[in-house]
Recover the amino acids of this structure.
């Protein structure tokens, strides 16, 4: 049951940032 | 008399991700099979490379071009990897006290630092009264 799952929102960055081409 | 007008569709990134997940579930344009704990998992290299430093280092170079089956020897077990693959495609990371050690190990292996930190916060919170 999805309802039984406690969801915590993470507002920060989730994954690495691919470096922009210099 | 603005210089230009923009309509920003604020749901677009999550709608794109939802469609990519549907493509994954239906095996459409998946271009790599990951053998994790012997279990084959199909995925899109572009999504893997966008979400994981480990896959970025593997697939960014020419060496990653011909690879369509990738086994991860000494790598993560399926019960730690599968939640991360779902996270990549849904932005939702399923955690439980039973699975967080395996997810943490897999996220470390895949160089997903932000997920590693979230796992530590989850573990920390589970100790608080």
């Amino acid at each position: 049951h999805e309802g039984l799952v406690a969801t915590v929102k993470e507002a920060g960055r989730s994954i690495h940032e691919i470096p922009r081409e210099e | 008399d603005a210089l230009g007008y923009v309509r920003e569709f604020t749901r677009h990134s999550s709608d794109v991700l939802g469609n990519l997940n549907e493509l994954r579930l239906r095996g459409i344009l998946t271009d790599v099979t990951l053998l994790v704990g012997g279990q084959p998992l199909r995925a899109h290299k572009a999504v893997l490379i966008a979400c994981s430093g480990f896959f970025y280092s593997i697939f960014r170079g020419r060496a990653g071009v011909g690879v369509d089956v990738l086994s991860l020897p000494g790598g993560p077990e399926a019960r730690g990897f599968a939640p991360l693959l779902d996270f990549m495609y849904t932005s939702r990371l399923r955690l439980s006290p039973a699975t967080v050690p395996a997810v943490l190990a897999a996220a470390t292996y895949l160089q997903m630092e932000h997920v590693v930190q979230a796992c530590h916060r989850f573990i920390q919170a589970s100790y608080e009264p």
